[in-house]
Specification:
3 helices; single chain; about 130 residues; 4 strands; alpha+beta
C-alpha cells in the first residue's frame, strides 16, 4: 500500500498544529499563573519599552532591585510583547502554584497508570512475554 504525499503532508500539518496548540496552551497557562500570583503586565508599546524588552532574556525571570526591594521581571516578546513584573511575594506565590500544578499533573499520570495496570491482558496474552 502506497501512501499519498498529500496524506503525509496533511498528517505533518495536523501534528504540527497540535504542537502549536499545546505550546499556546502552555503559554496561556503561564500567563494565567503569573497574573494569579500577582504579577502585573506592561505592554511594550513605546520604542523604549520595545528596546528594553528585546534586551531582556526571553521567557526567563530576571531579578532587579528597586528601592532596595527585589522586582521579578519576565519578558514575553512573542506571545504578548510584554513584561510581567512582580514582588518577592508574587514570585513566591508563582513558584507555589507551579509546584502545585506539577503535583496535580503527577497525580493524574499516576491515576492513568493505575487504570492501565488494571487492564485485563488475558485475551491478549502476557505483554511481557515476546510472541514468536
Amino acid at each position: 500500500m502506497k501512501t499519498s504525499p498529500f496524506v503525509v503532508l496533511a498528517l505533518i500539518g495536523l501534528s504540527t498544529a497540535g504542537c502549536v496548540t499545546a505550546s499556546q496552551q502552555e503559554q496561556q497557562s503561564k500567563e494565567n499563573l503569573l497574573a494569579a500570583a500577582g504579577f502585573q503586565m506592561r505592554l511594550a508599546d513605546t520604542p523604549a519599552r520595545v528596546a528594553s524588552l528585546k534586551a531582556m532574556p526571553a521567557n526567563q525571570f530576571v531579578v532587579k532591585s528597586q528601592n532596595g526591594q527585589p522586582v521579578y521581571l519576565y519578558a514575553d516578546p512573542v506571545a504578548c510583547g510584554c513584561v510581567y513584573y512582580g514582588s518577592q511575594n508574587a514570585f513566591t506565590a508563582y513558584q507555589q502554584m507551579v509546584f502545585q500544578q506539577r503535583i496535580m499533573s503527577e497525580q493524574e499520570m499516576t491515576a492513568m497508570m493505575n487504570q492501565q495496570a488494571a487492564f485485563d491482558f488475558g485475551v491478549w496474552g502476557d505483554p511481557l512475554v515476546p510472541m514468536y
